[in-house]
Amino acid sequence: MSITYLEAIREAQAKLLRDDKRVFIYGQDVGGAFGGAFKATKGLAKEFPGRVLNTPISEDAIVGTAIGAAIEGMRPIVEMQFADFSSIALNQILNNAGTHYWRTNMPVPITVRLPSGGTKGSGPFHSQSMESIYAHYPGLIVMTPATVEDAYTMLIEAVAIDDPVVYCEHKYLYYHLKADKLPTEGLPTGRARIAREGRDLTIVSYSAMVHEALAVAEQLAPDGFEIEVVDLRSVKPLDTDTVLASVARTGRLLCVGESFPWGGVTAEVIARVTAEGFHLLDAAPQRVNAKDTPIPYHPNLWSAHRPNAKGIARKARALLRE
Amino acid sequence: MPQVPIIMPQLGESIAEATVVDIKVKPGDEIADDQEIMDVETNKAVMGVTTPCKGKIAQITVQLKETYPVGAVLGYVEASEADAARFAKQAPPPPQREVAEEIPERADQEITPARQKKIAARDGDGARTGGLPVPVVAKGATFMSPRVRARMAELQLTTADLAGIMGTGGGNRVTIKDLENFLQKIENQTAQEASAIRAGVADAMRRSWTRPLSTIGSSVNLEPVLQDRQSRNPKPGPGLYAVRALALALAETPGAAAKLIGSRVVQSNSIDVGIAVEAEDGIMVPVIRAADKTSLADLTAKYKELVDLGRQRRISPDMQAGGVATVSNFGTFGMEWGTPIPLPDQTLLLGLGAGKKIPSWDEEKKQFVPRTEAQITLSFDHRSIDGGGAGRLLKHVIELLESPKKL
Question: Is the complex ipTM more than 0.90?
Fold first, then answer.
C-alpha cells in the first residue's frame, strides 16, 4: 500500500471526524460529491453526514463562524481553497482567533488548512506561502509538514491543540510525496527533525523545500560534503535548540524557504542563530528564498523564481568554500 | 586663447589624493613653464605643483585646505596654440564610464531593475584616482570566524598560536576544522603548562610585536667606562652606565621616548628606565624611577636592592610598570649583538652587547691599539620615532658612555 501526502491529510480528517464528535469541516466546496478543490475531503461528506459543510465564498465569514463554533466547544477544521485567499480572513485569524484566549481566557481551537506553495503555472494568486505572515502574530501555531507522516500526525495534533492552528500543507507535495503507511505517532509540535545527518553544513528548511535540501545533500555527497538537513516541521513554535545543536556540529548555516525573501522564517532562524549561537558560526549564515517579486505565471519564470536544488547547491558550495 | 588644464600630479606610488596648502598665483598672473604655483600636502610630504607650460593663469578651480584626487584639474593656463595642441595630443583618452558589470550572486536574493545592476566603472587604467587598487577586504588569511574566536578564547589561544596553521577556508583563512585538526596534531606531542612568568612574557612580547619595530646599532668604546668603574665604590656594571647614559640623553630629548596613541603623542613626566633582569623561565623588568635624577652611586645601590628582591621573586607588578625605556644588557650572556623587542608600553629599548678587545686605529699614535669595544643597539617603535631621531639619541648615549665622568 502506498499513500500520498494529500491522502494522508484526508485520512487524518476522516480519523478526526470518526474519533471526535466536536470536529467538523468547513470550507468552499468541501462537502457534497466534490470533496474540495484538491479532493482533500473527498468522500467525507457521505461518510460523515452533516459534518462536512459547504460555505459561501467568504473567507472572512468562514473563519468568523468557525471561531464562534470553537468558542461554543466545537473543533472546526477550516479549508481555505488556496493559502493566498486566507488574506481575506486575516482579521478573523489574527485579531479574533489569535487574541481571544489572551483577552478572555477562553481558547479558540480552530484549525485552518492552507493549501500553500507553488506549482507550475499557478501564478501570483495560487502559489503563495503565508507561514511567515501568520508566524509573526502571537497566539497562533503555524505548522509546515514536509512528509506524509507529518502531514497526518500534525493535522491530528492541530485539532487537539487548544490554540488556533494554521496548517500549511504544500500543494506540490500532494501527489509527489508517497509513504508506505500512515504512522501511529509522530514528533510533538515544536520539535524539529534531523532529516539527514551531516557535519559540514546545516541546511534548515521546512515544507517542500526540505526535499530540495535533501536533494542538494545527496548531490554534494560525492564531493565529500556531509550536509545536515533540519526540517523545522512547525515554524511556530520554532525549535531553536535543534537548529543550534546542528550548527554546533557543522559551524555553517544555510536557511531555505519558499516564501518571499523580506523577513520571514529564514531571516528569523538566522537572527536567532546569530544572536544565541554567534560563537558556533564558522562562516556568515546564508539563506535562499524566492525572488522578491510576485510569483510569475509562466512555468519557466516560475522555475527561476522558486528556490530549487540547483540554486541551493550553488549557495551551499559557496558557503562550504568560505 | 586655448586653455591647458593644471593637473594634480601623481605624487608617489600609493598616493591617491593631496590637500592644497598654498596657492602662489592668481588668475591673470603670467607664468613660466614648469613654475611652482601650488603646494599640496600628502600624508608623506609637501610637494609643489608646477605649470604644464608657459602662459597666463586663466582660472584656479581649487580651494585652500581642500583635498583633491590625483588627476584632478586644479586650474587652467591660457597657453599658445602650439602648447595647447601638444597637450591635446598627450591627453589620455576620456575614461570609459558605466561599463556594465553584473554583481554576481546578489541577484539571487533580490531582483533589482536591470539598469541598476551596474557599478560605476573606474577611471582610466587603474593607475589613477578612482582607479586605485581595490583595498583588501576584511577576509582572507586574517579573518577569524566567530566560532574560531570562541574556540580560541576557550583554549586561551592567540592569533600568534595559530601562525603555524595553513588555512583551507576562503582566502586561506583558518576554519574551525583547520583549528581542530591542528589541536589534534599537537595532542600527540609532549606538552606541559607554561609557567605564569613565561605566559606573561609571551603576552607582552606578542602585544609589542603588533607594532612596526626597528633596530639600529653602533659600536661603543668601553675603555672609559671600565676605567671609571675602578674609581667608584661600589662598582657599577656597564649596564648601569648605559641606564644612566640613556636617562641623561632622554632628559635632553624626552620626546624620543614618547608613545604614539591614536593621533596623540604621549610623553611621560618622569624619565623612569627599566632594567631587564633574567628570572627563572622568563624575564623581569624592574623600573628605576627618575633615573636622570639618580646618581650612578644611588643607581648602583638601587639596582642591587632590585636584584635581591628579584631573587626572592618579590618584584611586584608596580615596580615593573611605567617605564619609558628599558636597557637590556644581553652582553652578560656573552652576546655581541641582538635586536631586543621594546616592552609593549614603551617606544625604546637599549641593548648592550659584550665587551670585546679589538685592534683599534689610534690616529695620534698612528698605530693599532687594543681597546675594549661593545655593540650597542637601540630598538624602537617606528610609528613614534624614525631612524634619524633614534640614531641621534643612540649617538648621544655613546658620547656619554665614552665620557663617563658626566654620568
Answer: no
